[in-house]
Fold these 2 entries.
Entry 1:
Amino acid sequence: MKTNTRPPQLWERFFRWFCHPDFYEELEGDLLEHFYENLEEQGLFFAQKAYRKDVLMLFRPSVIKQLQFTFLHQISPDMLKNYFKSAWRSLFANRFTSLLNVLGLSLGLACFMFILLYVWDETHFDNFHQKGEAIYRVNRINAETGEGGTVTSYPFMQALQASFPQIAQMVRLGGDGIVVYTDDEYFVEEGFYWSDSTFFEVFSFPLLQGSAATVLHEPNALVLTERMAKKYFGVQDPIGQSLIIKIRDAGQKINFKVSGVVADPPANSHIQFNFLAPISKSLQVYPQFVNWWTLNWLHTYALVPDATAVAAIEDRIPALLKKHLGEKAPKNLTLEFQPLSAVYLHSDHLSGRQLKGSQRNVFLFSSIALFILLIACINFINLATARSGKRSKEVGVRKVLGARRGQLIAQFLTESFLITAISLTVALMAVRILLPFFNVLASKSLTFETFAQSGFWWILSALLVLVAIVAGLYPAFYLSRFKPVKAIKGIHKTGRLQNISLRQALVVLQFVISVFLIIGTLTIQRQLKYAHRSSLGFDKAHLLAIPVEDQEAISKIGLLKEEFGRGKGVAEVTMSGENLPSKMNNNWNIEWTGLSPERREVANVVAIDADYFEVLGIPFLEGENLRHSQRPDSSKIIVNQAVLDMIGWKKGLNRELTIGDIKGNIVGVVDNFHYTSFHQDIEPTVYFSRSPGFFSSPDNLILRIDGHQVKAALEDLEQRWDAFGFEQSFSYAFVEDAFNALYESENRFFTLFQIFAFLAIFISCLGLIGLSTFTLEQRTKEIGIRKILGASVLDLSFMVSKSFLALVLIANVIAIPLAYLVMGRWLENFSYHTNLAASLAFTALLISILITLLSLAYQVFKHTLENPVEALRYE
Amino acid sequence: MVFNYKTNKMKGTYLGEFQEIVLLVILILDANAYGVTIRKEMEERMERNVNRGALHTAFVRLEEKGFIRSEMGGATATRGGRRKRYYTVTNKGKVVLEKARNIREKLWKSIPNFSINPTGL
């Protein structure tokens, strides 16, 4: 028999690990005997193969040691009572640590719950519609790029319904600006929509008065929301009453009859409205819409019960478009049927005014929630294992008295369960109290009632169990491993290499997350400041924008401009078809010689007058401004640099372009300027002058006011406006303020991010405090002796904090490159962004060191200032 | 609700077929019945492979029911110094074995006409 050939070592170890100690000896013997038999008869290779097979054959429940799961057997009602009693007593005995634990865990859980509420709300938009699964929004998209807009035109619905029997019902929603007239006043209202009579059959907005099938049938019918009914009719029954409404864009007044009242649309609906009127009536107001395929102004929804039919429908759209639009059909235009559930969060590829959330934000906040929870759990684990010194005696005594390991594990898990339960309760209370503040921050209207939903309770219970287990499992196993004799003698192996490393690794992990969040916060702050401070490309100081919405006023806009020009404190006036910031409502097809036939491009069009660029202070790159003249000549156009870039021309002067139905000659090229949020691309835009009467005609006046006479100027302007006697009341906005408001959502996001980052760091500090307390207690004797030998308080402080600082340094080394990578990618989302300077890294490093020192400060000083006599007396 | 521990479940006096064969083989081997020998003997006589783990489970069950008894002894160099666990059938085991045999014989005797047809069925 050869003695230098052995069975496969790994498998030997494996078997040794799982085999129950009671049978280990004889089974191992059997295995070896069999192995050597095989070795003699069939050689090493076969013998080893047979050995592996044997080991696997023995991997059975009756052979495997039961150790790991014995604690499950320990859960009987009598023992549970004892476990809870012990747990409760141990919590009280170590009040300081327990408090730290509960504090950290509650904070973590509270943050988690806030974010959970937020994410829950965002992902549960539009979920209340009964037929919701079959509802799709029909978007116009470019087949190649997949981008597009949410609005479609009037004739689409009939065409789609006629060609596709799989579409059960369709409904359109077209917004319009209105003014409501009561006996003595008028109100400019928003949220007025023309809709088909199928509205209440497709969507589930409960009607308080009126029946779904007929409420929008009558041509003059009007459905009000509860809040509008209350506003205009108070406690009276609004049904049958008449309401006079003027459609602003058409300049027509209509006498509507209220036919129904609907409950206010819930906050988590992307469809928000105040008034609903039959779309058939809109044809009386805008008869030209019937066949106007290219005027896209409404949202179209389709009810397709058979989900599999949708793809087939989408495939046949191009053919349908060709049939109806013929050669005028824009290439690559197709329709997308977007499921209702995707509308709110997954509409990033669609432009157009819409209530939409950001999938990215949801993802980001979810990650933060998990991080915070992780940090809290790490705290718990660290504190529990650090405490082990104090509890080793207890474990020793319990074992001597007969406790099995499984029972000890069960007991420690009960402790962690208890702490988690207490923390969860505290967290719930905190959430309840602080919810209104959170709503303000996140601009949401979350209610505590969301908790009442069944799904939520499952999540909370799962959370309780998960956190208790995750945080409690390792300490439970670690603590129950102590050998009784050694424990009672006081020999506690705090020096065991693995345990210290694990604890240190956990602290490093906590600080990696914290440093990452610090850098993230700093980056976001930097980007926002950059956006705020950067020049928009025009002079926005003391610039006033006055929207002219009344039809009459628009037709007289030239006179208005002159009148305002004479106003007190008014330096300059100009008019424009777009406000500032501009929404760019008009985009027309643009063509030029040399344009390849497959390519379709659009450009924004803005109607202006000859003073526009001067008032704004925008430099010309080529050519000159428009000339002042009585009759607007739209054949003379000015383009911005983006147009040239799109076409590929180096110089644009005197070139010809066809924009929409205008053949224009470029007389000037202006530098690109940010007409809207700094973060958005500057699109190709064409400027020309237009007389009133078109949709694109100027309907905004922009004035530059003398900074010292602002109040006087405003009063004067208002008087001059009122003198005209328009139905619209004087309203204005400072361009600077309007631009700042654009960044509101970003600012809000940033504030939330900051708060959560701060909380995460705070929890890490709590952990550090707890940890340092015990490490220092361990070293009291050492510190005492060093003091006697002459060390100063400063020396000692430094020596003691050294280890922690080292950990923080390591954390920084890991976190900084990681953060740079992630934040770098985030910044690229913005067309115009700042860079990641090295100063960020240094700041983060400094902050983390400072935080560490502060957390350690109290404990360190307390222990190093102690009288060494006291320290050494403990024996 | 109190959990029942798996270890002391009373399985009654049921003797499975596999367990019955194990008992018989132990008796055959007389004084030399331990894991390796029992398994080899079973494989030879039954002309099929015996799963080592299943065999061990059978040992544990039989011992729980009190049909066999085991004791450690006899380490050799081939076993790396590990002792063997020898099994012997207890009286209780022999009683239950004989009962099973009687039942089987009675069953056989009760068959009216037993003949093996060379062409099938």
Entry 2:
Amino acid sequence: MNTSMPELGQLIVSIFSAGGAFPLEGATVVITGNDEGNREIRHLRISDLSGRTEPVLLPAPSAALSQTPGNRRPYATYNLEVSKEGYFPYSVSGLPIFSGITSIQPVPLIPLPSYDTENAYPRDVNSIAESEPNL
Amino acid sequence: MPDSFVIPESITVHLGPPRSNAENVTLSFPDYIKNVASSEIYPTWPEAAIRANIYAQISFALNRVFTGFYRAQGYDFDITNSTATDQSFVYGRDIFDNVSRIVDDIFNSYLRRPGSIEPLFAAYCDGVEVTCAGLSQWGSVDLANEGRTPYEILTYYYGDNLEIVNDAPVADISNLVPEFPLREGSTGRDVAQLQVRLNRVATNYPAIPKIYPPDAIFGPETTEAVRAFQRIFDLTEDGIVGSATWYRLQYIYNAVKRISEINSEGITLDETTPQYAGELSPGDSGITVRTLQYFLDYVAAFVATVPSVAVDGVYGNETQAAVSAFQQTYGLPVSGNVNERTWDRIYNVYLGLVSSIPVVFTEGTTIPFPGVILRRGSEGDAVRVLQQYINEIAAVFPEIPSLSVDGVFGAGTEASVVAFQETFGLSGTPGVVGAVLWDAIASVYEDLYTGNLASEGQYPGYTVS
């Protein structure tokens, strides 16, 4: 089976707090591959004044695979780790990337509590598992 | 009276089957649809198929809201993400850029049968694994490839007795919708409003250049600000304000203002102490409940799984739901009551949120309503403050006459107040300033004051007096 992925999709990460009221500059974004065949991929980005990263080009399967049912998965998946001092870290797994398509990944960061007596981590809002439909 | 359904500003989604003990998230209606569209179909499909699917997704969701399907059953959400009964929604997922632009264009359009207000219950399925009476997702791809338009694809599945309602009003946002497009050469109130709101957003997003002074004339400075806004928010970067850009600006502006408004509420609670004062539960009321609600409302602005609450001092169902959601999100036992452990956690979370905000955003810039209705004949310091606010606003909005700041509410002040009410589409007794009108005037003044601040890295070339 041919596992090469010659086509490319693009990813931009948008980091903010308070529902978009505050863009977050200087957050560190690490992008890694999630599939067999792209696990060696590793990109690092820092968010700009508007909380956005420069686009990252990422390999994806041929777009032709998505045009009819019954083909193998027509997208590649990637993982993200986002961190910024003073905020809970944020992780994304299984982020789908399609050939020729730009994906925008929103990252709402939550500031750390003032005193972390509990060490409780709001997991469901900081650890995202993405998926695509089974079309 | 609108003859169309009003699009909700936001929607609450249950992250599981209806009866499951899953969390709810509340998000803007366009963001919800962007997520559904990215979760239900492939972005590489032909555009006509994507559009047809999105019309169906919008209508399905609006039907749930219109009929109150879940709320009528006693649930505190509008829709679920269980595909057994509703549509796919993957909380926190990536959004495809092309899908995002289409949704920004049509999020306030929907399908219905002629003669009916109700949004169509637009059922759909993939059409290969599952077939149904309704749109077939894979079928729509074939029809699009045959050259059919979105409307033709939709009538193929839903019948010819189908109309698309375009540009329906959006709750709380649409009272000031301008004639589109606004572009270089446009003038008047709509341009003033655009400039004021862009400037206010630019205070939080310094890559957007300020328009100084805001003069109700759409010139090159305004074009540059619009372009910068469009670049940051994934809109077509053409410097022209159509429906997509305008609505996006309102949503971002609302997120920005929400924090200002919560902060100014906090100033009135300054006398309270954050010390735990005993367990709080439904039925309680008073200043400690108000303080609790204030903290929770602050958390709600930052954490999507915690719903906002009215800061009214009464511990009812809404407060209980917010407490439970907080406990679930932060890993505490979910009781709906506030014991010491929950109180301390809420307070520590709140402190952490406030500390993360630059100080300039936490300082109040306006004075709260003085508690006395102001009208023709009133005199005093409160009138003077009111006049100062209106004068700043009159300098930007050509339809509002300026007035002398003399602390006396005479015919001139009354005329300016009435002009403000008309310019901003406000109902209420003309010329009479109660709490609601005071807050509206103070809000625009805050926009101007904060919007005119130059921040670090701001586009150079002017000084703020």
